[in-house]
């Protein structure tokens, strides 16, 4: 399938430490490029149960900034056993009142040099593309502020659920660093003029405004955020992974195409879907008036 092929192609390009068999934290780097001691707490945590993997940005003291170490840790958690049949859906959330404040500005000073800066933005871009190309749906669960690359992370996820206290912004222009990479995901999630107002002014929008413009899937009261996100995740986890995976890959593949090409691609995907074991199982179960028994 296209998604799996894209993921395998991506995996061939990533550092070897990402491909290790155990779920190990990546070697985080200090501001001068040196490795952080192993005693340094990992910037993300992850656990998986009943097909649902929960990845948590766990550095609230630094507003869950997407430092290079945070990005590599997130990348590792997303990639871990991505092809396992036991994985059905991923949820990305955060500790503290800030979902993510974006890149760590201390890593973007001139002392770090262009090569280090390039590595940060390349790694960030790889994480965002990995979310798009991953074989299972990825949900952002947002409770608080998401700015710059943090807003980019939300926009890159397949589904985004937020509390009504959340806000979203791309404020880089206010400090002289235009949010060009966040604009890639933002501009593909909201209307152009909405994206450009956010990018040109840096002013935040509320969760309700973000929902209205298409950045979010749903807004709920804070006390219902986890419940609603888990409801969506459990529903996805109850379905056929091969069918959902094919559907996700096809959806993104057809989006940039002209109408005729889009219908050609999706018609072929429907044929491929019918050739899947679960495609036939679902139809038989419907005809026989029983619940389907999925292959995974």
CATH topology name of the largest domain: 2-enoyl-CoA Hydratase, Chain A, domain 1
Strand order of the largest sheet: 1-2-3-5-7-10
CATH-scheme architecture of the largest domain: Alpha-Beta Complex
- Average pLDDT, rounded to a whole number, is 90
> Proportion of β residues?
5-15%
Q: Specify Rg, calculated over alpha carbons.
A: 20 Å
Shape descriptor: globular
- The CATH superfamily of the largest domain is known as 2-enoyl-CoA Hydratase, Chain A, domain 1
What is the count of β-strands? 10
Helix/sheet category: alpha/beta
Order of helices and strands: HEEHEEHEEHEEHHEHEHHHH
SS summary, helix count: 11
Unreliable segments (pLDDT under 50, ≥5 consecutive)? 10-37
Rounded to the nearest angstrom, the distance between the terminal CA atoms is: 17 Å
Query: What proportion of the residues is helical, as a percent range?
Result: 40-55%
**Number of structural domains:** 2
Biggest beta sheet summary: 6 strands, mixed
GO molecular function, one term: hydro-lyase activity
Main location: mitochondrion
Pfam family, one: ECH_1
Subcellular location: Mitochondrion
